[in-house]
Fold this sequence. Notes:
Pfam families: YceD. The protein is mainly beta.
Amino acid sequence: MRVGSEVRNGSNMKEYLEEAPQSWSERLVLSAVPKDGTLYSDGFALSAGLPVSYWGQLYTLLSDMEVELRAYRSEGRVILTVATEAEVSAPCARCLEPAREKIRGELRYVLSLRRGEERAVGEPESDGDEEIIALDSWEDEIDLAPMIWEALITSLPCGLLCRPDCRGLCPQCGANLNEAPCGCKKDAGDPRFDVLKNFMRGKGNDTAKNQK
């Protein structure tokens, strides 16, 4: 598990995750997927333990994340769907107060043992919109942690709101406008446009003089 972006030094380490934790040890046993094409399914719960770092901010899982697996065989491949569901918390994008949201992610993978695709071992190929992961012939178990992590982070919203009508913070004094008006005067506008305003005002005066 990589914790933060710095190397561990005694007790000094970042308290967030940038990849799947080592505690996620779940694996898919390929022999458990029926060879007749019947659907195989499984479900379990995982805990992140630490906040997740993504989109430049930290997301806290408020409870265990529910994971659902669905897999079946087709034409020498195993089609695997990984779905995640959780409730996360992060600072509101407008007022910075805690905000929470239920998220659900789902990704599909194609696991192949076909000879024609063995040349791509370790490198994913594409089959339309699907990602093909070519496996070594001796592999019987698939590490699910990277796939679960990918399904989780791709479902994280880039910004959460504490409520849809959040009024945010006053740009002048920083007061939370959801609690009460701050009394600051409204900004008359971007001062960088003052030169243009003066130019247009002068142009209008010149036009008025020419019309007299």
